[in-house]
Design brief:
This protein is of the alpha/beta class. The protein has helices at 59-72, 104-112, 120-134, 154-157, 163-169, 178-192, 243-251, 255-264, 267-272, 278-286, 290-313, 324-329, 331-339, 350-353, 378-390, and strands at 2-8, 13-19, 24-32, 40-45, 48-53, 82-89, 100-101, 140-144, 198-203, 207-213, 216-220, 319-323, 360-361, 370-373. The strands form two sheets. An eight-stranded mixed sheet has the order 5-4-3-2-1-6-8-7, sandwiched between helices. A hairpin with a 3-residue loop joins β9 (198-203) and β10 (207-213). α10 crosses α11. It starts with a strand and ends with a helix. The structure holds adenosine-5'-diphosphate (ADP).
Length: 392
């Protein structure tokens, strides 16, 4: 079966066409700057990437071109060869604990959750509706970033705030990156043959940690929004909200501008003033740029705070798993994190850790917690959910 996995943002649309159950990627691509004059898209096929400049008025435009390209690249002859479409949706609130087939009720519910994710959910919905317009008879599935974390206990997801804020307005921790953490949980079970206690570290441009027990999320570092938890590329992570009125009074900025700064100008970009990309920050670190050194140390420290905390919540983790851009590729950052855990007997095998493209165990034989690198695959997870639901 051919399943299309889609991730629509406010001005972008990423897609991957996969063959299931073989789990084989056929073709993938990315439409960028939709609605802007310099819009373009790229298609990756047979190890080759083609980039094409074209005006993409809106998402429906992108969807039409996408489908045409699938024919041009001869991966399908007609649209009904696409058996299902899985959409990444950011916020399912506490309404969805797993993926669901999309119908009008689901769309209404996701719409009702827009206040919780005012940027992401509308963009995701535009993506869904664009596909529905062009392919009205193709089954579609919603895969929520928040769903995996709905197994957290109340004592874990509540904030110490007036309880009515939770009851009336849904103010609580939701957690995100759930599809990635679930992929890690499932893959680890597949590899090991049983559920182990896992600390999943998804550290990319966005970053979050998740404590997984019996295949379920029991704690995660992102919160009501994705801007909580560890330090990210340009997001601040955990901060004292008491600083907000002070910053507003000192800078004369409006609340929205400050929120934008917390999301887009903070994190490693904020600290270094150079870049949100860890490759650049690592280069600065190697050249002993003081702010890059500080940023790398802060970044590692914060992840260690969560690992230690989650080790306690799990009553002793079996595995620490590194995934996503930084987790999969930065041996320097993995080393900085794990060296801070040497005191509790967690140790890296430095040769394995520094092997390019390493997958699997990177800790020493006697490490008290095993450490491994496992590439995440959210597109595959979305496609698998879609395949499972449409075959039910
Ligand atoms: P996203 O969160 O946007 O999905 P990714 O998981 O793809 O992002 O991670 C992208 C980030 O991974 C980049 O911004 C960069 O900081 C980091 N990264 C990628 N390769 C390396 C590398 N070799 N060394 C350090 N960081 C890397």
């Amino acid at each position: 079966m051919k399943i299309l996995s889609v991730n629509a943002g406010s001005s972008s649309l990423k897609f991957t066409l996969l063959e299931l159950p073989e789990e084989k990627v056929i073709i993938s691509g990315n439409f960028e700057k939709i609605g802007l004059p310099d819009s373009f898209y790229s298609v990756k096929y047979n190890g080759k990437k083609d980039r094409k400049e074209t005006l993409l008025k809106d998402h429906t435009d992108a969807v039409k071109i996408l489908l045409e390209e699938l024919k041009n690249y001869k991966v399908i002859k007609s649209y009904d060869e696409i058996d299902g479409i899985g959409h990444r949706l950011v916020h399912g609130g506490d309404k969805y604990t797993e993926s669901v087939i999309i119908n009008e009720d689901v769309l209404k519910t996701v719409e009702s959750l827009v206040p919780l994710a005012p940027i992401h959910n509308p963009a995701n919905l535009i993506g869904v509706r664009s596909f529905m317009e062009v392919l009205p008879n193709t089954p579609m599935v919603a895969v929520f970033d928040t769903a995996f974390h709905q197994t957290m206990k109340e004592e874990e997801f509540l904030y110490a705030l007036p309880y009515e804020w939770y009851q009336k307005y849904g103010v609580r921790r939701y957690g995100f990156h759930g599809t990635s953490h679930r992929f890690i949980a499932n893959k680890m079970k597949e590899i090991l043959g049983e559920d182990k206690k896992i600390i999943s570290c998804h550290i990319g441009n966005g970053a979050s940690l998740c404590a997984i027990k019996n295949g379920k999320s029991i704690a995660t570092s992102m919160g009501f929004t994705p801007n909580a938890g560890v330090i990210m590329g340009s997001r601040c992570g955990d901060i004292d909200v008491g600083l907000l009125p002070y910053v507003i009074s000192q800078t004369g900025k409006k609340f929205d501008e400050v929120m934008n700064d917390l999301n887009k100008k903070s994190g490693v970009l904020g600290i270094t003033g150079i870049s949100s990309d860890m490759r650049d920050v690592e280069e600065g670190f190697n050249n002993k740029d003081p702010r890059c050194v500080t940023a790398m140390n802060m970044y590692a420290n914060k992840i260690v705070d969560y690992i230690v905390s989650y080790n306690a919540k799990l009553e002793g983790a079996d595995y620490i798993v590194f995934t996503a851009g930084v987790g999969e590729n930065s041996d320097v950052m993995r080393d900085m994190i794990i060296s801070r855990l040497n005191f509790m007997g967690v140790k890296l095998d430095s040769e394995k850790n520094s092997t390019r493209g390493i997958k699997g165990i990177i800790s020493t034989e006697d490490s008290t917690i095993k450490v491994c690198v496992l590439p995440t695959d959210e597109e595959l997870m979305i496609a698998k959910d879609t395949y499972d639901l449409i075959n039910k």
